[in-house]
Each structure stands twice: as C-alpha cells, then as structure tokens.
Amino acid sequence: MTFPALRAWAWRLVIAAWLATAPWAGARAQEAFTIGVLPNVSGRVIFANYQPMRDYFERELKRKVEIATAADFRAFNAATVRGDYQMVVTAANVGRVNQLDAKWAPLAIYEPQIPGLLVAAVDNADSAVAQLKGKSLAMANPQSLVALRGLQWLREQGLQAERDYKIVRAGNDDSLGTLVRSGEAPMAMMSMGEFRQIGEETRKSLRIVTEFARVPGFLVLSNPKLVSAEVQRLKALILQFPKSEDGKRFMALSGFANIRDVSSLELDPLDAFAEQTRAGLAPPR
Q1: What is the C-alpha separation between 29 and 14, in angstroms, rounded?
Q2: Which pTM was predicted?
Q3: What letter would DSSP give residue 273?
Q4: Angle of CA points 274, 43, 208, to nearest 5°
C-alpha cells in the first residue's frame, strides 16, 4: 500500500470511530426511550391507556418510545432506582422518595387528586370501621399513598394495623372484590382508579363506604442521568401533552383531567410519608 493510500485508509478509520461515538450515532438513535408507569392497575390497562402518550413522545422525540411497568410497586421502584427508565409516572410518595434519595427530577403532576376509598360488599350494611377489629383489611398496593393515608385515617379512628386488624394483600383489583365478597376481609382500601378497574360484575357486588381522603396525583419524573437540556425538553413536552390530540385521547381513556407543573411546596408535605414509603419498598426479609 502506498503512503497516500495508507494515510487515506487511516483517516477513514478515524472518521469511522468518531461517527460511531458521536452523540447522534445510529446505535444511540435506535435506543428506545422508556417511560415507566407504576403498576397501580393491570399491565393490560396501562399499555392500552398509555398508547397515546407513547405515540406523542415518539413523534416529538423522533425516536422509538416504549411504555414499561413491573409486577408490583417494589419491582417497579427497583427498576426506577436502577435507571431502567428515562421518565417515570409514579405515586406521589414514591416519586418524592425517588427525588430525595436518587435525585430524580419532578417534571409534572397529574390532576385531579386521587380519592381514597373504603369499600364493602353491598350486602354488608354496616359502615362502621369497628367491624375490622379482629379481622382483615384488604388492599392491592400497600405502598401507595392512598394506602398510607388510609392507614393513618384508621389510626385516627382508633384502629391500629397488626394490633386491631390484619392487612391482607390482594394480587389484583378483582381479587380485592373477591376477598370482600367472601367475607375474608369485611372491607377493602383502594383508590378510585383501582375501584373502576374491578370487573363490572364484581364491582356491582361492592359499595363505597366512604371516601376518607384525597391525595396528590401521580408524579412525572426524569432520570437523574439526563442532562439539563433533555430534562427541560421532557418537561415542556409533558406539559404540552394534555393540549395535544394524543393527550385528549389519553385523558379520555385514563380518566385523568390534566397534567400540570408541580412546585416544591406541594411536594414538601409528602415527606411525612417518606419513611413508611422506604420501608414498604424495601426488599422483604
């Protein structure tokens, strides 16, 4: 090989190496942008409801976008902390802990606030929480903010978990209804969203005893490894999303009303639930 040809060949190697490591290199462009969604309802429902958000971000980011979830709150939070997702939609208390402990950046919050419900069988006319004494309270997501606020509410009524009643965890929303109808648990604690996802026949056999609280909606947060420009871009996109046609489809499917900016003043009160949230998300011993 002549010297000019050797020099040209060497330059081609340099250019190829530079192209392979450039920020906009083809390999990176093909990486999927993953939005993690908390498994408060079934994966089937999540993937159906979040398809418009996937379409929107895929179009705006001009890259492949995937919606991901997990088997339960613990697994989802572990994946979040590992950095498996570039953006997450999660319970407000879980998101706050992610912010405090892992530097995830809050971008927005869902509206409206989430109603927390106490539910019983329709043929159970007793609405007194005292009927839980010596029995069980059913819930599907004990790490949720609805559950933590509900347990606090029951303490205010004079009932302490594990002293006055046991907590039995249901595998899914329909299982909650089954536990209540069977009498194994005279009452169940759930969000309005969980109640709506119970199968119609099972839901008809249940009644809402009371709405004990309304808690902040889901938080949207960005991965701490993203650079500032990427974070700002995501924030602008998620805040514009409700006004888009995809956003309107998402709201109609999911029942949410809006996604708006969130302030630190709104997040500070969640610190009261931080230790309980950390304990609930810790791996079982």
Answers
A1: 21
A2: 0.83
A3: G
A4: 65
